[in-house]
Structure formats: C-alpha cells, structure tokens
Specification:
Helix content is 20%, strand content 28%. The protein is an alpha+beta fold. It folds into three domains: 66 residues, Structural Genomics Hypothetical 15.5 Kd Protein In mrcA-pckA Intergenic Region, Chain A, CATH 3.10.290.10; 85 residues, Pseudouridine synthase (2-Layer Sandwich), CATH 3.30.2350.10; 120 residues, 2-Layer Sandwich (Pseudouridine synthase). The strands form two sheets. Strands 5, 6, 7, 8, 9, 10, 11, 12, 13, 14 and 15 form an eleven-stranded mixed β-sheet that branches. Strands 1-4-2-3 form a four-stranded antiparallel β-sheet, with no helix packed on it. The radius of gyration is 24 Å and the shape is elongated. The N and C termini lie far apart (72 Å).
C-alpha cells in the first residue's frame, strides 16, 4: 500500500494514468479490478479511473508492493551535459540560452542536449526529482535547430507546459531573430509555401499553394549592410521547419554559413560552417486570464549582447 499527495504536476491528470505511472508490470485487468474493489481512493473515498486529480489530493493505493518499483539508481550520463545558461526564471518557467550545436532534445546520436541540462540544473536546485512518482519531467516548449542559437522557453511543471503550449498554439508569443545574409533580401512581410521532406530533413519553398505545402510568413528588416552582407532582423509570423533559412534562400539572400540552403562557394571561402542565426527576443502578447501564465502578458525577454553582432562587424566588406 502506498500514499501520495498530488502536487502541481498531477493537476488534471487522469487517476488511472497516474496509477499506471507509479506502478510497474501491473496488468490492466488487475488495475481496473483495484478500482472496482475500492483499492484506489482519493481523499478516503472511492474514485473512478477517469477522475481528474487536483493538487493536494491524498491518493491511497491499496495495491501489492510487488507492483511498486524499487527506488531506481541514478544512471551515469553517457556524455557530460553542459551547464545551462538561464536568462530569467520563476517558479513556473525559465528562459534559457541555447548555444550553437547543442541539441534541444536528445536524439539517436546521444549528444548532450538542452532539456537534459535543464533537468540537471533543476535537480541540483532541489526543484526536480527524477525518481519521484510524477510522470512529468521539465520540458522545452519551443525548439531551435541544432545550428541555431538563442532563447528557448522551458516549463518546470505540467500546468506551465500545458499553458505555454496553448500560448504558442494561439500565436501569443512573438519571436525575433538576427541573421547575417549573403545578399540583401527585400524588406517587408513575405508569404510563400513550404514542403518538408522528412526523409532528407530538407524543405522546398514555392510562391503559390500546392498539395502538401504549408503557408509561411516571414517579416524581414535590414539593420545594417557591409559589402555583400546584411544584418537582418527577422520576425516569425509562422514557425515551420527551417523556415527562416529556406525562405531567405528563396529570396536570394541565404543565411551565411548555412550548409543546407546557403551559398556553398562563399561559405567555403569564408570558412563559415554554421548558420549565422540567433533567436534574440521573445515577447508575449495579451494572454487570456484563464491561462495560469497570464502574468507574462507584455513581458519581453532579450538575449544580452548577442555574439552575432560581433560576428557581423568582423566580416570584411
């Protein structure tokens, strides 16, 4: 028999899902038999499997100990995780800096990634226990390509992840980038259509709609010119895979250093092997009051002293 007190990460979670998360190798038949036989209680009373948990609920599971896993030992990391750089944080979210070449999430390479580094940071602070019964783990809410640096939003608890995802889906989060282009893109708001080939992880951009293509809208402003190069401020109206890089290449002003969509000759000549693209600002619009992150309305977070500015000024015109 085990007792649990529901925390913020269990808010809204279905009771049967919670029980499945804290038990191990328990057959479905026994799980639902436990519900029928009143061996799963909430605040001392029988509850149905579909009951939605509230923070502070006392969850009593009268289930054989054999179905509760032993306390796991922390597995040694295969590769050392980098120290996470936090730009701003509160009890719900954090604004993180992702360096170039660092993955946002783990992949088949096993290389270090931002989400693992963030969890390690919170674990060290005592804000996250990877061995706790909760099935939630701190997460990244938006992602950047491996070769892109800049600001990323992370959630510390389930309600914040849920509500930040809602903010992003409702287009209540503005993201601004700085990039260095080879050539001068036309300024203004540009609309095109993009198709993502998942096998090659490369996209194609065209002017008019077509089957399988999704609309992309990109705002372009040239901040400064130097020889054939431009320092551009980019506003993402839509957020598609490789949108900025592919759209700028379509506009005949590819991102300097971009090995997928860029100008190979100039990249090799200047020994540029990484795209010069940085997410420098995150700004929140009017967030509905029912959203727990409503207090972020109007807040703007900027990357202090973006390195891309120095890179631009070091270029020879």
């Amino acid at each position: 028999m085990k007792n649990f007190v529901a925390g913020p990460n269990e808010e809204g979670v279905r009771l049967s899902r919670f029980v499945e998360g804290v038990t191990h190798n328990m057959p479905k038949s026994l799980l639902y038999k436990a519900f029928r036989n009143k061996r799963v209680k909430v605040n001392g009373k029988k509850q149905d499997p579909d009951y939605r948990i509230h923070q502070g609920d006392l969850l009593e599971l009268y289930i054989n100990d054999e179905f509760f896993p032993a306390q796991p030992q922390k597995a040694p990391s295969k590769k050392r995780q980098p120290k996470v750089q936090v730009i701003w944080e509160d009890e719900n979210i954090a604004i993180l800096y992702k360096p170039t070449h660092l993955l946002c999430h783990s992949d088949r390479t096993g290389d270090p990634n931002l989400v693992d580094a963030f969890r390690a940071y919170l674990e060290e602070k005592g804000e996250y226990d990877p061995h706790a019964p909760s099935r939630f783990a701190p997460a990244i809410c938006n992602r950047l390509d491996r070769g892109t640096e800049g600001l990323v939003v992370a959630a510390k608890n389930y309600p914040s992840l849920r509500d930040m995802n809602a903010i992003i889906q409702q287009d209540l989060l503005n993201k601004t980038y700085l990039t260095i282009t080879f050539g001068f893109p036309p300024e203004g708001r540009h609309t095109a259509y993009l198709w993502h080939n998942e096998k090659t992880n490369k996209v194609t951009v065209r002017k008019r709609p077509a089957e399988g293509y999704k609309e992309i809208i990109t705002q372009v402003k040239i901040e400064e010119k130097k020889g054939p190069f431009a320092l551009c401020r980019i506003g993402l109206i839509t957020g598609r895979t490789h949108q900025i890089r592919a759209h700028l290449a379509y506009l005949n002003a590819p991102v300097l250093g971009d090995i997928k969509y860029g100008n190979r000759t100039i990249n090799e000549k200047l020994k540029q092997r990484t795209q010069n693209l940085c997410a420098v600002k995150i700004a929140f619009k009017e967030i509905p009051e029912e959203n727990t992150l409503h207090y972020l309305t109007g807040q703007v977070f900027k990357l202090p002293s973006p390195a891309i500015l120095e890179k631009f000024h070091q270029l020879e015109g």
